[in-house]
Amino acid sequence: MSDEKKKGGWFSRLKAGLSRSSSKLGDGIGGIFTKKKLDDESIEELEDLLITSDLGVATAAKLTSNLAKTRFNKDIEPREVSEALAADIQAILDPVAKPLEIDRTKSPHIILMVGVNGSGKTTTIGKLATHYKAQDLKVVLAAGDTFRAAAVEQLQIWGDRTGCEVVAKETGADAAGLAYEAIERARAQQADVVLIDTAGRLHNKSDLMAELQKVIRVIRKLDENAPHDTVLVLDATTGQNALSQVGTFKELIEISGLIVTKLDGSARGGILVALAEKFGLPVHAIGVGETANDLRPFTAKDFSRSLMGLENASD
Ligand SMILES: Nc1nc2c(ncn2[C@@H]2O[C@H](COP(=O)(O)OP(=O)(O)OP(=O)(O)O)[C@@H](O)[C@H]2O)c(=O)[nH]1
């Protein structure tokens, strides 16, 4: 398949995945700007729509005032509003769009995956493993969510599916020791990548953070720069709560980037814009479904146009 065709396919999948968010915004904008000028009333309605679409209060104010700068008191079509917003959103997202690339010289490149229970960590690890295998990289999976037997089984299924070795232990085993062993295994077989799953819930928040800190401390005995990436997985359907999750994790461990999942199941795609404005952390990818191919690369232009329900400008 040519690159262009492949890109077209990605864009339509992304657009389909984001359809709940884009129809909320598109219908809202259509409703506000039917035979309407950009006046105080419509600006306020637009600002409310952007806030309820999870873009955040500050971003909503910034986007509407930008629009008002050039169009105030002028007739405006819904499409012009969507195009102007997509361009501004793209400018906000451009600096954070950054794929999670593997440095083959690290052998192995160690990625710690963190996030609250059910955010989609294990599924995302399976999707990343599929993606890296397709690049001919050798991948080892560490079933570090030793707190939940089902999480270990789920990772094992992804391991079978992708042909990646899964390092796992019995429920309740020490997660840090398991991560250490997984890295040793990866070194022994000259693997390129180790993806470490972690628990999303222990008895309480401080237990969870202490466990993550211990995992990091222990794997640094093998490689002082490990983990090379610490990716926080966020469930988009939690909306504004995703912002407080970033705050909580960032306080205690160093987060290097984000992956936002379940965008297909919610009208809350705007949360990516709020996250970018508030934290400026790299966004590596987004999840728009449960299958291996539903982890999409995060690109500012495609995402902002899909979010506003617009076609790809290069189509
Ligand atoms: N629709 C949709 N579902 C997703 C996506 N990512 C994950 N899921 C589903 O969300 C549920 C939870 O995902 P898990 O991967 O088990 O989440 P986790 O963070 O590992 O959860 P714990 O193991 O409980 O810590 C599963 O049913 C996944 O199939 C996505 O992008 N879209």
From TrEMBL:
Domain of life of the source: Bacteria
Binding site for GTP: 115-122, 197-201, 261-264
Main localization of the protein described in the UniProt heading: membrane
Entry-linked SMART domains: AAA, SRP54, SRP54_N
EC number, as in UniProt: 3.6.5.4
Domain SRP54-type proteins GTP-binding: 108-309
InterPro entries on file: AAA+_ATPase (IPR003593), P-loop_NTPase (IPR027417), Signal_recog_particl_SRP54_hlx (IPR013822), SR_rcpt_FtsY (IPR004390), SRP/SRP_N (IPR036225), SRP54_GTPase_dom (IPR000897), SRP54_N_sf (IPR042101)
Catalytic activity: GTP + H2O = GDP + phosphate + H(+)
Principal EC category: hydrolase
Compartmental location: Cell inner membrane; Cell membrane; Cytoplasm
Membrane topology: Peripheral membrane protein
Gene3D superfamilies linked: P-loop containing nucleotide triphosphate hydrolases (3.40.50.300), Signal recognition particle SRP54, nucleotide-binding domain (1.20.120.140)
Annotated Signal recognition particle SRP54 helical bundle domain residues: 14-93
UniProt keyword terms in alphabetical order: Cell membrane, Cytoplasm, GTP-binding, Hydrolase, Membrane, Nucleotide-binding, Receptor
Family indicated by similarity: Belongs to the GTP-binding SRP family. FtsY subfamily.
Function: Involved in targeting and insertion of nascent membrane proteins into the cytoplasmic membrane. Acts as a receptor for the complex formed by the signal recognition particle (SRP) and the ribosome-nascent chain (RNC). Interaction with SRP-RNC leads to the transfer of the RNC complex to the Sec translocase for insertion into the membrane, the hydrolysis of GTP by both Ffh and FtsY, and the dissociation of the SRP-FtsY complex into the individual components.
Subunit structure: Part of the signal recognition particle protein translocation system, which is composed of SRP and FtsY. SRP is a ribonucleoprotein composed of Ffh and a 4.5S RNA molecule.
UniProt-recorded name of the protein: Signal recognition particle receptor FtsY
Species the sequence originates in: Kiloniella antarctica
